Amino acid sequence: MSETLLQIENLSVNYGHVTALIDASLEAKKGQIVSIIGSNGAGKTTLIKAILGEIKHSGKIEFTDLKYEKAQDLKIGYVPQHFNIEKNTPVSVYDMFAGYISRTPVFFRKSRKVYDFIKGRLRIFDAQDLIDKRVCDLSGGEMQRVLLAIAVTPIPNLLLLDEPVSGIDKNGMELFYKNIQMLKEKFDLAMIVVSHDFEFVRKYADYVILLDKTILKEGSFEEVSKSEDFQTIFGRDYNEYTL
Amino acid sequence: MNILYDIMEKILPFSWIEYNFMKNALLAVIIITPLFGILGTMIVNNRMAFFSDALGHSALTGIVLGALLGIADTDISMIIYAVIFAVLLNHIKRKKTLSTDTLISVFSSFSMAMGLVILSKGGNFAKYSSLLVGDILSITAREIGLLCLIFILTILYWFFGFNKLNSVALNISLAKSKNIKSNIVETSFCILMAVIVMLSIKWIGILIINALLTLPAAAGRNISSNMREYHLFSILISIFSGITGLVLSFYLGTATGPTVVIIAASIFFITLILGTLKNR
Hints:
- The structure holds two protein chains of two kinds.
- Chain A contains nine helices and ten strands.
- By secondary structure, chain A is α/β, with parallel strands linked by helices.
- Chain A folds into two domains: 1-6 and 27-56 and 65-75 and 155-243, P-loop containing nucleotide triphosphate hydrolases (Rossmann fold); 87-154, no CATH class.
- Chain A has a six-stranded mixed β-sheet.
- Chain B has helices spanning 2-11, 20-45, 49-68, 74-95, 100-122, 125-128, 130-133, 141-170, 172-177, 182-204, 209-222, 227-252, 256-279.
- Classes of the chains: A alpha/beta, B mainly alpha.
- The interface between A and B is medium-sized, with 38 and 32 residues.
């Protein structure tokens, strides 16, 4: 059996009087891709942000490392749903990347060592040529590859991807799928992926969770997509639109 | 200090340097302008221009409150008030109940109005009106020393905290996922900003301090493609505008602060055109 990395029990989140998430329980195992699907406003991003510790919640979120038999804070990689950056912002990919991993202040000098290291990490996603580009000039697909490289540096135990294929063209998507597959094989990590893309979910997700404020249905994509709730939310003919 | 004066007279063969007030003003400009150039980079990147403006407006209230409470050195009450103001404002901003610009506008006008009401009641308005425009020519050696101290502190903060500050500015969720304590980063930056604005407001004035904080960085941003260029241009433009403005104002008999702002704004427009041409 693979090890459980993340255990969530009875998670609820309220924004003032608005309830965003009620009583959600799930777990993520090493080497597994858990995919979260649901309509807009179903609480998918809320769930991700709760795991990141960014919003107040009730219930339990526990990271467990069975090696030491105790709960501990694991390394989390995160790719946000939106990365808004103003036009003309003078931040290069190097500046952004080095900011997370290096002590050398990026305004002062470019460290050769850090530069080469970052280039190596970007190469995993075929993004090494973007290192001197301004972040605000990247296309959606380029941005995503850079963000993925940042998310897996240092290699996390848990990777959270929030709608990673929004705003990306067909080629970019195929490259992205290849990358996910590669991450799954190469690194020993658990992934939670919020996605609208059922082609991706069907092909890659080991476990699917249908969310609408609370967990309506979970299991394999086959099981979930046959459920009444799934068909109410996405319609019976979802295949025509998404595949 | 006298040694410094002698050196300045020797290396600068101009008539205006004979006046001690000009020497002091020049020293102050040489310290304040790079400081503002550095600070400005993150104020502009973080879209905090409104925030720093509100800070400037809170100066008056801090002084008036200090005077009311009978504090001998109103500079201290001004700094304390500004720090509380900045931390509180930042805290409420984080709650996201109101849009940031509305919130800052409310805070800023309330604070400014409070200061003005108390002043007008006591009939002391004229005494503090110089605070609006500022007067760099009246700076003393001791005050220059104080500026020097905050300059060193800022450099240290920038060297140890800049990467984190930049990460938080880029994307707060991503920064948090990398275990960066965004609250501490944001709050400490607000406090630093409050202290710097308060220590320089007397010399620069409430009305234009924000222009000096944001213009050089905004101009540098037009022509930079990474953080190193951004800082370099911002600092150079800031120092250049400061010194040219000071000397020009001496010969033209104009107020120093606004003269500096006009030069910095002109540079902004030039870089805007250059940047547009470059990116085409």
